[in-house]
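note to self — DONT lose this again. spent like an hour looking for the file last time. sequence + predicted structure for the chain T wanted, 133 res
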Amino acid sequence: MSKRGWRSISYMAHYVTIRRASASKVGNIAYTAQLRTDMSYALRRAAQAGRTAFVLKLLDRGDDIDSAEDDGITALMFAAEGGHIDVVMLLIQYRADVHAVDVDGLTALELAEVNGHKDIADLMRAAGMNKNG
Protein backbone atom coordinates (compact mmCIF):
# COMPACT_ATOMS: atom_id res chain seq x y z
CA MET A 1 0.00 0.00 0.00
CA SER A 2 1.30 3.46 -0.79
CA LYS A 3 2.16 5.93 1.95
CA ARG A 4 -0.84 7.97 0.85
CA GLY A 5 -3.20 5.00 1.35
CA TRP A 6 -1.72 4.20 4.75
CA ARG A 7 -2.04 7.83 5.80
CA SER A 8 -5.72 7.67 4.87
CA ILE A 9 -6.25 4.69 7.18
CA SER A 10 -4.32 6.40 10.00
CA TYR A 11 -6.25 9.66 9.54
CA MET A 12 -9.55 7.85 9.55
CA ALA A 13 -8.75 6.00 12.78
CA HIS A 14 -7.64 9.24 14.42
CA TYR A 15 -10.69 11.15 13.16
CA VAL A 16 -13.06 8.47 14.42
CA THR A 17 -11.37 8.49 17.83
CA ILE A 18 -12.01 12.23 18.14
CA ARG A 19 -15.61 11.92 16.91
CA ARG A 20 -16.19 8.96 19.25
CA ALA A 21 -15.07 10.99 22.24
CA SER A 22 -17.46 13.77 21.23
CA ALA A 23 -20.31 11.30 20.83
CA SER A 24 -19.66 9.88 24.30
CA LYS A 25 -20.07 13.34 25.81
CA VAL A 26 -23.33 13.84 23.96
CA GLY A 27 -24.58 10.41 24.96
CA ASN A 28 -26.26 9.73 21.62
CA ILE A 29 -26.35 5.93 21.50
CA ALA A 30 -27.26 5.67 17.80
CA TYR A 31 -24.48 8.07 16.84
CA THR A 32 -21.95 6.17 18.96
CA ALA A 33 -23.03 2.89 17.34
CA GLN A 34 -22.44 4.38 13.88
CA LEU A 35 -18.97 5.54 14.91
CA ARG A 36 -18.22 2.07 16.24
CA THR A 37 -18.83 0.74 12.73
CA ASP A 38 -16.51 3.38 11.27
CA MET A 39 -13.78 2.39 13.73
CA SER A 40 -14.10 -1.20 12.62
CA TYR A 41 -13.72 -0.12 9.00
CA ALA A 42 -10.18 1.04 9.82
CA LEU A 43 -9.48 -2.36 11.41
CA ARG A 44 -10.65 -4.22 8.31
CA ARG A 45 -8.57 -1.98 6.02
CA ALA A 46 -5.47 -2.45 8.19
CA ALA A 47 -5.98 -6.24 8.17
CA GLN A 48 -6.44 -6.18 4.40
CA ALA A 49 -3.17 -4.24 4.03
CA GLY A 50 -1.30 -6.60 6.36
CA ARG A 51 -0.43 -3.87 8.88
CA THR A 52 0.05 -5.99 12.00
CA ALA A 53 1.14 -3.19 14.34
CA PHE A 54 -1.80 -1.02 13.36
CA VAL A 55 -4.25 -3.92 13.72
CA LEU A 56 -2.87 -4.50 17.22
CA LYS A 57 -3.30 -0.83 18.11
CA LEU A 58 -6.91 -0.83 16.89
CA LEU A 59 -7.72 -4.05 18.77
CA ASP A 60 -6.15 -2.72 21.95
CA ARG A 61 -8.32 0.38 21.80
CA GLY A 62 -11.44 -1.78 21.49
CA ASP A 63 -12.38 -2.00 17.82
CA ASP A 64 -14.94 -4.71 17.02
CA ILE A 65 -12.87 -7.66 15.80
CA ASP A 66 -15.81 -9.43 14.16
CA SER A 67 -17.44 -6.50 12.38
CA ALA A 68 -18.07 -7.17 8.71
CA GLU A 69 -18.51 -5.36 5.42
CA ASP A 70 -21.94 -5.47 3.76
CA ASP A 71 -20.81 -8.66 2.00
CA GLY A 72 -19.90 -10.34 5.30
CA ILE A 73 -16.11 -10.04 4.95
CA THR A 74 -14.38 -9.66 8.34
CA ALA A 75 -10.85 -8.53 9.22
CA LEU A 76 -9.81 -12.18 9.56
CA MET A 77 -11.16 -12.96 6.09
CA PHE A 78 -9.32 -9.99 4.56
CA ALA A 79 -6.06 -11.04 6.22
CA ALA A 80 -6.45 -14.70 5.23
CA GLU A 81 -7.39 -13.82 1.66
CA GLY A 82 -4.39 -11.49 1.36
CA GLY A 83 -1.88 -13.94 2.81
CA HIS A 84 -1.05 -11.84 5.88
CA ILE A 85 -0.15 -14.64 8.30
CA ASP A 86 1.00 -12.34 11.13
CA VAL A 87 -2.33 -10.51 11.09
CA VAL A 88 -4.23 -13.82 10.94
CA MET A 89 -2.29 -15.10 13.98
CA LEU A 90 -3.00 -11.88 15.87
CA LEU A 91 -6.71 -11.94 15.09
CA ILE A 92 -6.99 -15.59 16.13
CA GLN A 93 -5.12 -14.75 19.35
CA TYR A 94 -7.65 -11.98 20.00
CA ARG A 95 -10.43 -14.55 19.42
CA ALA A 96 -11.80 -13.49 16.05
CA ASP A 97 -14.75 -15.62 14.95
CA VAL A 98 -13.05 -18.21 12.73
CA HIS A 99 -16.42 -19.65 11.73
CA ALA A 100 -17.88 -16.44 10.26
CA VAL A 101 -19.07 -16.73 6.66
CA ASP A 102 -19.45 -14.13 3.94
CA VAL A 103 -22.50 -13.76 1.68
CA ASP A 104 -21.13 -16.55 -0.54
CA GLY A 105 -20.86 -18.90 2.44
CA LEU A 106 -17.04 -18.81 2.51
CA THR A 107 -14.97 -18.80 5.70
CA ALA A 108 -11.52 -17.31 6.24
CA LEU A 109 -10.05 -20.81 5.85
CA GLU A 110 -11.67 -21.27 2.45
CA LEU A 111 -10.58 -17.80 1.32
CA ALA A 112 -6.99 -18.64 2.29
CA GLU A 113 -7.14 -21.91 0.34
CA VAL A 114 -8.75 -20.38 -2.75
CA ASN A 115 -6.00 -17.76 -2.84
CA GLY A 116 -3.18 -20.28 -2.44
CA HIS A 117 -2.17 -19.44 1.14
CA LYS A 118 -1.54 -22.97 2.38
CA ASP A 119 0.46 -21.74 5.38
CA ILE A 120 -2.52 -19.74 6.63
CA ALA A 121 -4.94 -22.60 5.97
CA ASP A 122 -2.66 -24.94 7.94
CA LEU A 123 -2.46 -22.42 10.79
CA MET A 124 -6.23 -22.12 10.92
CA ARG A 125 -6.68 -25.88 10.95
CA ALA A 126 -4.14 -26.14 13.78
CA ALA A 127 -6.23 -23.56 15.67
CA GLY A 128 -9.19 -25.95 15.44
CA MET A 129 -10.93 -24.65 12.36
CA ASN A 130 -12.18 -26.86 9.57
CA LYS A 131 -14.20 -26.35 6.40
CA ASN A 132 -17.40 -27.52 8.06
CA GLY A 133 -17.19 -24.96 10.87
